[in-house]
Every structure is written in C-alpha cells, then in structure tokens.
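Q: What structure does this chain adopt?
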Amino acid sequence: MKELITLSRREAQRMQVLEQVIRKSLSLKAGATLMKVCYRQAKRLAARYRKEGPKGLAHRRRGRAAPNALGLEIRERVLALHREVYSQFNDTHFVEMLEEREGLRIGRETVRRWLREAGIRPKRRRRPPQHRSRRPRRPQIGLLMQWDGSPHHWLGPERPMASLIHAADDATGTVLGALFRPQEDAIGYLRLLDMVLRRHGVPAAVYQDRHSALFRNDNHWSHEEELAGVRFPTHVGRVLQELSTETIPSFSPQGKGRIERQGGTFQDRLIAEMALANITAIDQANAWLEAVYLDRFNARFAKRPELSGTAFRKINAAQRYQLVSFAYEATVANDNTVRLGGLIIDLPPGPRRRSYARRRVLVRQHLDGPWTVWLEGQCIGHHGPTPLREPFRSRRPHQPGETRSTRHILQVYYETTPAPNPGGHFSLAVEGTS
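A:
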C-alpha cells in the first residue's frame, strides 16, 4: 500500500533544491541560500532527506493536535450552551457570558470557529467593505461648497462641548467661513451661510450630510405635502432654494471626506492656538476666528484651482438680509394681525389696501431677531426683535378617530418646516398658525 505524503509548497521547493545538492549539481551553501535557511539547518535537512526521503521534509507536528488544544467535551458543551441558553447572543457576547456565568475562558476566534463548523451562522450579517473611488475636485472656486459641524471640547477639556460649523470650497480647500455654536443647529448654519455670502458670494452647489437642520430625515408626508406632491424642505434648505443653490446630500462620511479631514486639522491646530490666546468663550472665539485665524489657515492650506476666476454669484446686503432668515406661513386675522404662537404682529393699512384680513402672508424672522411680513413680494409689516429659537417638527396630539398611521405632523410657529418657494411667497396653507 502506497503511503501518501503531504508537503507544503515551501517543502516541495526544498525537496527540489536538495535533489540538486545530492546530485552535486549545486553546493550545500548555495542550496541554503535558495531555501532561505542557515548552513547548519541546510545540513540537517539534507541528512533527513537522505535518510527518510520526502517524508523527512514534512513538518513533524503535521496531523497532531496542539498540546494546549481544548478537548472535544468542552467543544460539545459550548455548542450545547449556545443552542439551549445563548442562541440570541452574538459571538463576542456569548464568549463574555461563557467566562462570566459558566466559568469557561475560551478565545473568541476558537468559539467562532466551533460555531461555524457546526453550521451556526452569525447573528448579524457583516457587509463587505464597499468599493470607493476618489472624487476629483471641482475645477473652479465657487462651484461646490462643503459644510459640516464638528462637536468637540474646543474651548478646553474643562469647558462644555461646542460645535464648530465650517464651510470649505471643494476646488481649493479654502475655509469660506466658520463659527462656534453650543450645538449643531439651523441657526448656526444660517449664520454660517450669511458669512459665506458676505465674504465670497453665492455658491453654485452645497455638499452636506443629512443632519436634521439640513435634510428631511423623516418619512412622513403631511396633507399639504401630499397635495403639493413635494416634501417641504428645512429652513436651511428653503434658503438654499431661494438662492438657486443646488443641495447634494452625502450618504456616507467618506463621501464628504475633505470637510471631515479639515475638521480633524482644526481639532489638531485650533484647540492649541485658542488655548495659547486664552480664548474660553464662544463669542470671543468667533470674533478671533474671522479676524485672525481663517486667513492664516487659508494661506497655509489652500490649493490652487484648476481654472482661474470664480463661480460665486454676487448678492447685495439687502437681498442677503431678506433671504437668509427663518420663514413661516400665516393667515391674517380679521383684526389685521398675524399671530405666531405668543407673538402678535399688527399690520398697518397699505397704500392700496386698507385690510389684509384672511390673506396668506409670509412671516420672516431675520438673524438679528426682527420680524417682517411679506405679501406678494412686498413688505407690509414689522415687529421688533425677539430671541431666535431653533425650529423643530412635532406630531399633534392624538385626535379621536385617528390611528398612529394617520396622525399628521402639525406645522406651527417654532415647530415648522417651511413650504418650498423660490419666488418668495408660499401659496400653500400651513395648519395651526393661529
């Protein structure tokens, strides 16, 4: 009966070299170099090959169990515990429970191998990494702006966390604007947009993540949205629509890698420089950012664009003040007042219209706090400044005769997402604004 000898590729290559050594067509010293072993090891391999043949080159422990291998009884016990007690646990959690509750200290890879060999699949399917390709930069400044918020202990480890909201040009990496906020919110993004418009102009497109201040993350359609056939944007999204700026959502952190890496550079450099300048307050940090840091950062890190010129569009101060604001729909009451929550705005008679009762108007709160009321592109009322408050969406209380699936989002003052309108006035009604 012929004996079957299994050799690895390296062992088979050694056999070919030793055959040449035995036939004296190759010196043992040269053979040792080819086998990548020392001369003494080559002598031992040659002697073993002469005595035992190819079997002498096979690894001595091949086919033998490791001395520290766990026994079959432990393996069967682990599999039985998984089937009977821990079937809902993932691999790592199961290993932790084995050590904590069963007194069995076994490596995770060993347990994982036993489970797979027994046909027990993992609790969750792991997706393979996606293929990602590098996106080339836009050729001209102003064609694409990226912006993002980065929460961190910017003002020191003993200070509360803040969020740095910053915007960068895709073509050059230039920081177009940056400011600190207590949190990442719509107020911060609108103030950042106002800064970019003032310093550079209107960008052609904005690349952003799906933060709730920028992107509608819910899957709900209100009655008004169903009638219009479109989902209303967020306040920031509405302003970008009115500026005719395209919004491009990112569906992965890797998609906006350039702005993410810039945030990492800020964390590496900005914290140290603010500590050196003894900056410990958000207002102080914002003033220092615009007056000192941004120009110096751009001089160090900005790149030259492929094409000269700029794609930023000019916008004057009056247009910027009007458009970059929060906007709400309302109906004028019979006494010519607009009521938004606890706010009451009196409308004086106009030159061509003595009463605005029952008319749909657009009410804007500007970033410095004052309110203006607009009808068909004309400002018909004002109100003094009030504090800015972050808008949010909420569902109305449960009504008799409706189920959870038929409940609708109530859009009211400070709880609204505005309707879309590039022209300035929203023709669709919004419930609950009285």
